[in-house]
Amino acid sequence: MKKNLKKYELSREDLAFALLSPGRRFLDVGCGRGYLLSKAQNFFDELYGVDILRINIKEAIKNAPNAHLKIVDINKGLPFKNSMFDVLVCISVLQFVLDPYFIVTELNRALKRQGILIINVPNIAYIKHRIKLFFGVLPQTSIAPGWDGNTFHYFTLQSLKKLLQEQGFKIEKVSGSGIFAKYRNFYPSLLTGDLMIRAVKH
Asked: Which of 23, 73, 134, 192 sits a CA distance of 20 to 30 A from 29?
C-alpha cells in the first residue's frame, strides 16, 4: 500500500526547493548526495554544500558538479565569511549536532541581512509519536540505525520557532513533507512527521 501512495509523497528536498528564493549564493548545510544542489543550480550564481561524510561529498560531486563542496563538521562552525549567502538550507541536521543554539548562530552569521533560512527537523509532537509516548513507547524519528539514529535533540514546532526567533529570525512559513503533505499542512505541528520552516534574517 505504501508503494502505491508514493506518488502522493512530497520529499523534504522538493519541499525545500519550493520554498527557495533565487539569489547569488546558496549553501546547503548537510547537503547529503547533492540532490537539492542539483535542483537549485539554475537559480543561483554560486552553489556551496557541506557534509560531515566523505561518501556523501563524493556523490554530491557527481550530482552537482558545479557546486563548491567540502567535508565539514559544523559542530566546529561554518568555514565561510559573515553575510556570505542569500539562501541557506539545513535539512535534517539540527537533531544530530552537539549545540543547536551554536549552529543556528552560525547559520545566522553566514546569511546576509534579509537572507532566507530553510530549516527542517523531525517533529516529536507528530500525532503518531504522541500516541507511542502515551503508551510508553519511545518514538523512532530517524531511519538510521542505533539509538534513534544517534539523535541528540528533539523538536516541537514551538521549540524550533523559539530557537530561531531567539537567534534573530522571523518565521515566514511552516510546513512539512510526506504523503498527502498538502492536506496535512493545515496543522503541521500535529499532522506532519517533520517540520520545515522558512525564516528571514532580520
From this structure: 192
**Other CB atoms within 10 A of residue 108 CB:** 20
* pLDDT score of 144: 80
Band (pLDDT 50/70/90 cuts) for residue 8 is: confident
User: CA 173 → CA 15, 169, 184, distances in Å?
Assistant: 12, 12, 14
**What phi-psi label fits residue 102: left (phi over 0), alpha (psi between -120 and 50 degrees) or beta?**
alpha
152 three-state secondary structure: coil
Higher pLDDT residue, 149 or 91? Answer: 91
Q: What are phi and psi of 51, to 5 degrees?
A: -155, 150
For residue 54, what pLDDT band results from cuts at 50, 70 and 90?
Answer: very high
